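hey
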C-alpha cells in the first residue's frame, strides 16, 4: 500500500512538473496531493 501511495505521488508530481514548465496554474504540489488523495 505504501508503494502505491508513493508511486501515485511521484507520478502526480511528474504531471505537475510538466504543467509548471508550460506555465499553467496547478503545479507539482497540487497534482501530487490530488493523486495521493485519489490513491488513498
Amino acid at each position: 500500500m505504501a508503494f502505491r501511495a508513493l508511486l501515485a505521488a511521484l507520478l502526480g508530481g511528474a504531471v505537475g512538473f510538466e504543467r509548471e514548465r508550460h506555465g499553467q496554474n496547478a503545479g507539482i504540489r497540487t497534482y501530487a496531493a490530488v493523486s495521493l488523495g485519489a490513491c488513498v
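The radius of gyration is 10 Å. Residues 2-21 form the longest helix (20 residues).
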